[in-house]
Design brief:
By secondary structure, this protein is of the alpha+beta class. Helix content is 28%, strand content 14%. The chain contains six helices and six strands, in the order ααβββαβαβααβ. The strands form two sheets. It has a three-stranded antiparallel beta sheet with strand order 2-1-4. A three-stranded mixed beta sheet has the order 3-6-5. Strand 1 and strand 2 (64-65) form a beta hairpin. The protein is globular, with a radius of gyration of 22 Å.
Length: 181
Amino acid sequence: MLSMGRMKLLGAVLLAASLLGTAARGEQSPWPDDPSRTCFFQMLSGVDGEFCRGDLEIIYPELGDVGCAYIPKCHQYRRRISREWGSPRVRYPQAEKGADLRTGNVKGLVLTDYVRPTPPPRSGYHRYQLRLYEQPAHEAIALSPEERVSLGAWAMESFVEQFQLGSPVASTQFLTKYYED
C-alpha cells in the first residue's frame, strides 16, 4: 500500500511524463494561444476598483465571476466573450433569500437586450458596467424610444434622476479589449 505522499508524487511524475510525451511527439497543446496553460486574472484597482461594490457578480462560462477584473487574452477568453458566449448570469448574493437575483435567475422587465462586448481594434480597454438599483414601489420604469435604439449611449444620470433611483445598491464592471490586440 502506497502512502498518500508517495501517491501524490507518483501522480505528479505521471502527469509530467505525459506532458513531455505530448511535446516530444510534436502534438499541439489544447490551448494554442497559451501553451503554458497558465492564465492570470488581474483585478481592477484605483478608481476602477472603487466602482465595484456590493458583491454583484457577472458570471461567464469557464471564467466564473469577472466582476472587477480585466478579461485575459489567454484561452481566447476575449474572443469568446465577444463572439461566442451569450449573456452572462448576473447574481446578487445579498438579495432576499429565495429571490431570483440571489440565484442568478433574473426575471422581470428587460429594458435593453444583451449585447456582447465588442471593443474596436486598437482602441485599448473598454469598461462594461452593471449597476443594480432598488426600484421604488409602484414605479413603472421604461426607456424612451430614443434610449431604446441607442444601445446605452444615453445619459445614465438623467435616467436615474427621472425615476428617483438614488445610488446603486451594488455595482461592478469588467474591462476588455479587442480580442486580437
